[in-house]
Write a structure and sequence with these properties.
With 159 residues, the protein is mainly α. 82% of the residues lie in helices and 0% in strands. Helix 1 packs antiparallel against helix 4, helix 1 runs antiparallel to helix 7 and helix 2 packs antiparallel against helix 3. The longest helix has 32 residues. The relative contact order is 0.15.
Length: 159
Amino acid sequence: MNHESRREWIKWLTWLFIVGLFISGATAIPLQSELDTLAKFLGGTGSGFARWIFKVRNALDNTYADYPFMAYGTDWLAFGHFVIALAFVGALRDPVRNRWLFLFGMISCVLVIPYAMILGGVRGIPVYWRLIDCSFGVFGFIPLWFCWKWTGEMEKVRA
């Protein structure tokens, strides 16, 4: 792969990661309406997944009815995703100079796994849901690894 082609792939994968972070954050804001929609879609199915969704939706409905300010926590979760996504604009501008962002992102993706497994267990989150959370780290790691690898190769050529 030539230098220009590699740079285009890095840009495309970085955009993919930024958009993924943005969408992930944006979905944390309308959580109650999203769960209502998902619960309606699932109907009365009795699968473990559906039971979990209904349980979370009911807990959220009850909590938000009495304590609407609790939604502020997921608003801040979304904000964190947006700010991290914004940081990766530096990698779009100069991926070699800002190569450290890819390493930072990979470390963060790896840390999602023990974080979700340990704290999810402490909070009573079902294992299958924790695995879904872990998948964000796994799927986020892949494009970042390619970007990190390719910027390392480009850095050697620059030197």
